[in-house]
Specification:
365 residues; single chain; 14 helices; 9-stranded mixed sheet; 2 domains; Spore Coat Polysaccharide Biosynthesis Protein SpsA, Chain A; 9 strands; 46% helix; alpha/beta
Length: 365
Amino acid sequence: MMQSTLPLVSVVIPAYNAEIFIEKTLESFLAQTYQNLEILVVDDGSSDRTAEIAQSYATKDSRITLIQQLNGGVAAARNRGIRQARGEFIAPVDADDVWHPEAVALMVQRFDTASEETGVVYGWSLDINESGKVIGGFHAATIEGSVLKTLLCHNFLGNASSTLIRHVCFDRVGGYDEQLKAQNAQGCEDWDLYLRLAEHYTFAVVPKFLVGYRKSSNGMSTDYRKMARSQRLMLDKVRESHPEIPGMLHRLSRSSFYLYLAQQSHTNSEAGDTLHWLWQAAVVDPITPFCRLGFYQLAIINIIRCIWAMVRPHHKPLSVACQPTSPSSSRLLQTASSKDGLVHRLKVRLKLWVGSLLHQSLLRI
């Protein structure tokens, strides 16, 4: 099949003060083996060189278009790009994330083999830091089909940059919720959209690491209290639309999310916040957190850190654990399908097994 006959894919990149990373993101799409793309960079009122950099790329490649607007938040920027997109498929991507060169091709191919009811195809992602180094975290699942209850319990897709979505789906469910910004509750716009999509469409997966998801110290994902509010509002909407879903799933969702926030706080060496989110998880759901080994590990490590901070207030924080060094994200994503490392493979298999077990269990509820 000739490349020109393949469906157009619209890559929508909301960008706010993204001058540090936007080039890497654009380069990852210019390197795609799938060439029938339009790349829409929506500059959301940046005060740095984001628009200048994007325009310089647009001048060199006609597939790139710069759209500028006053600052309205990430949801508004994504919606603006989707409204202008001409593609059959939409690839929402944050301005600091990168894709494997074969990511678009593999996701489009998965749509070819999926059912007509499939609205979303997702790939696996690896966490990278500001320098592009892999930091150990990842999102991987083999969950497919009807996923509403499973997705309610936890966002197994992991982030806003790992999906390819049929354009027509947005006409049915609407775009990203721009009201979350007005309610000072940003952070779960992508999860909220996925849940609304799951009400009407099935999901399919490309079981390969295709996305480098950047964890930035000044990103939206570090404002944990705002994210917690965002999740609560999202769950309230689901409860209103689906009163038949048992309340225990909502409690499990909140508890799991608080444990996620605890883990992120721990990664950032914020011992007090880590203990706060562990406590919140236990208050919401006094059963399942205590069944997780990670709950006790985080509690013990961060209690020690807090005690150390009180005893040695002028010393550097106690380092209880450290992250191993890893290859650069670009090199790892180039060889993502053959990722080495026994420990990594075991972690992936365990995560896949637990995720599939949860999904099959929830289908029976």
